[in-house]
Amino acid sequence: MEELLSVVLSTQHSLNGFGFVGVFTLLGVLQLILPEPDRKLLRVPLVLFAGYMIVSAGLLLVSKETNIYLLGSSTALLLVLLSFGRLSFLLVQRVALRTWWSAVPKIFLDIIQGLVYVVVLMVTLRTAGVELDSILTTSAVLTGVIGLSLQETLGNIFAGLSLQAQRPFEIDDWVEVDQRPNLSGTIVEINWRATRILTDDGIELVVPNGALAKVPLHNHTKPTPRTRRSIYVRAPFEVPPSQVHLIVLAALQDVSKILSVPGPSVVTHKFDEYGVLYWCRFYCETFHERWDIESAARDRIWYGFRRAGISIPYPTRVTHIQKHDAADGELAKQAHMRKCRQALGQVDFLKLLSEETLAQLASNIEIRLHGRDETIIRQGDVGDELFILHSGWVLVRVARAGVRAAEVVRLGPGRFFGEMSLMTGELRSATVVAVTDCELVVVGKAAFQEVLQSHAGIVERISHVLGERKGELERHKPSTGIDSSQRGHGKEVLIERIRRFFAL
Ligand code: CMP
């Protein structure tokens, strides 16, 4: 017995010595080659090594013939070998496989590391004289207990391995677990036990691999990051579907993050007790911005409906009884007139007009709402309306072939635009986009014609503004391809053109 003990101890001593030298050398090498942030990985092996040193020091106080000495020696060996195993793994992972280790899935690295620890444990038990194979084969109870307790863990490991082999998702993919929107997010890590998902709410969700393998999983990043989104809009029965389709499509096309190819589409989805339900479909490539994009789409549709005088039916059974008496109508009309009159009063060249003419003009115009980022006027379109900004800001942008559209100017309350096409009949010379929500007073050609006919002097004032703006546009748009004599913006040429256009 004593002989056996001395053989065991001498084997452990030589392994201890080997482990000590190995750990020391590896710690030195890794300290030198690991970059600063990765050095924290050396903490665990260092703690194990410190444990080894403490246990070894304690052994100096214990007699070699005792069982306590054997236990202490085995513990010291286990600690130094674990430290050595971890350091060797780090060296191989970070140095030898430097070029491609980052491509190796984390789950494989975890499993290799786990195997290293198991081998270390077996070597230590072996050197302590424990016959592992006989324990495992003879003790059915032990085998059963180990098997049962590892059932879940092994299930997760194998599920993780099969997920890695099939690759239904990868790190950074956007997934939705079990068709539950609150369980959607980006994959952060797939390890030997579980998959970590960072949800929309910024919460880290840890789903065991075994559970993940059993539920349906939507990957929104594969095969391409392009996903189709749907929103539903109701319109009253009285409005023709073709009109709703046109408004919805124009609204969707104006949202910058909605893809133009494949373009948006609208389907008349169903008739219900509240009206006609329209299914609006569009594609976007930034899944994480889906709510903002859907919100922008609904905003645009709301403004489009509002301009077309379409009301969204209430999805409730509340009965609205509206009393229309003549006095109410008159009050609303007067408020509208006041607003229009106030807007007209802010425009420089209209200050020439008499109070009576302004009031007459105010009764012939409409107020229109545009939402932020909506295109109000598109360069190259036909147009015969003048817009006066009652509130909000717009920007004027001019495009020329092959160059990104350049911003020319921003206009705020009291400023006007759209006068060039209205006055001369030319195509819209620039694009005007709402920078904020805008309330616009819109003056049509017919209303303006009446004003021009009664106040001929106004043409001169307008031609002055026109000339300045055209000059500015020319600077941003040097090569329009249009003959300069045709584009001429000398005051006389403009006055002549306005007179001809309005048959004055
Ligand atoms: P119109 O050509 O009808 O449509 C585009 C409008 O942008 C144009 O009328 C002007 O009202 C406006 N616009 C173009 N250039 C300028 C500018 N330099 N300053 C202010 N408004 C401009």
Structure summarized in a few sentences:
This protein is an alpha+beta fold and 504 residues long.
Low-confidence stretches: 480-488
Class from secondary-structure proportions = alpha+beta
Mean pLDDT: 83
Q: Could you state the CATH homologous superfamily of the largest domain?
A: Jelly Rolls
Globally, the shape reads elongated
The helicity comes to: 40-55%
What is the CATH domain class of the largest domain?
Answer: Mainly Beta
> How big is the Rg?
39 Å
CATH topology (level 3) name of the largest domain:
Jelly Rolls
Beta strand count: 16
Residue fraction in strands:
15-25%
What's the CATH architecture name of the largest domain?
Sandwich
Beginning-to-end CA distance, first to last residue: 127 Å
Number of domains: 4
Largest sheet: 5 strands, antiparallel
Describe this structure in words.
By secondary structure, this protein is α+β, with helices and mostly antiparallel strands. It has 4 domains: 2-130, no CATH class; 166-219, SH3 type barrels (Roll); 227-307, Alpha-Beta Plaits; 335-474 and 489-502, Sandwich (Jelly Rolls). It has helices at residues 2-33, 43-59, 67-96, 106-127, 132-138, 140-166, 209-214, 241-253, 290-308, 326-345, 355-362, 419-424, 445-454, 458-476, 484-487, 491-501, and strands at 174-177, 184-190, 194-199, 204-208, 217-219, 227-235, 265-272, 275-284, 366-370, 375-377, 385-391, 394-400, 403-411, 416-417, 431-434, 438-444. The strands form 4 sheets. The protein has a 5-stranded antiparallel sheet. Strands 9-16-11-14 form a 4-stranded antiparallel sheet. A 4-stranded antiparallel sheet has the order 10-15-12-13, covered by helices on one side. A hairpin with a 2-residue loop joins strand 7 (265-272) and strand 8 (275-284). Helix 2 (43-59) packs antiparallel against helix 3, helix 3 runs antiparallel to helix 4 (106-127) and helix 10 (326-345) packs across helix 11 (355-362). It is elongated and about 125 Å long. Residues 377, 383, 396, 408-409, 417-421, 428-430, 432, 469, 472-473 line the site of adenosine-3',5'-cyclic-monophosphate.
